[in-house]
Amino acid sequence: MQFLTLMKVLPGKVADQPSFLIKVKSVKPPEGVRINGVFFLLGRYDGAVLFEAPDFKMAKDFVIRIASPAVYKVETLGAISAEEL
Q1: Range with the poorest average pLDDT among 38-42, 66-70, 80-84
Q2: pTM score of the predicted model
Q3: CA 55, CA 33: separation in Å to the nearest integer?
Q4: Strand, coil or helix: what is 72?
Q5: What are the residue ranges spanned by the domains of the chain?
Q6: What is the CATH number that goes with domain 2-80?
Q7: How far is CA 28 from CA 45, 48, 80, in A?
Q8: What does the alpha-carbon distance between residue 73 and residue 67 come to, in Å, rounded to a whole number?
Q9: Most-buried pick from 14, 21, 35, 58 (CB within 10 A)?
Q10: How many C-beta atoms lie closer than 10 Å to residue 76's C-beta?
């Protein structure tokens, strides 16, 4: 399953947001989770992580790891490719 986690920096938490996103990419994901990309965004959200996990529980465990410093408000969406519909 594919997931997209949108990240919004909490007020006063990160001075250098792009370098902090690079640190997010260095977080060791749980077994079975693969990070496909970490992105800096312009707009309502500040960053995004695109990743694959075998199920929702593994996705939740990974999101908790990347959000645990309490720097980001996160919203995670499950994704299905248009070809699979």
Answers
A1: 66-70
A2: 0.83
A3: 9
A4: strand
A5: 2-80
A6: 3.30.70.920
A7: 23, 17, 24
A8: 8
A9: 21
A10: 19
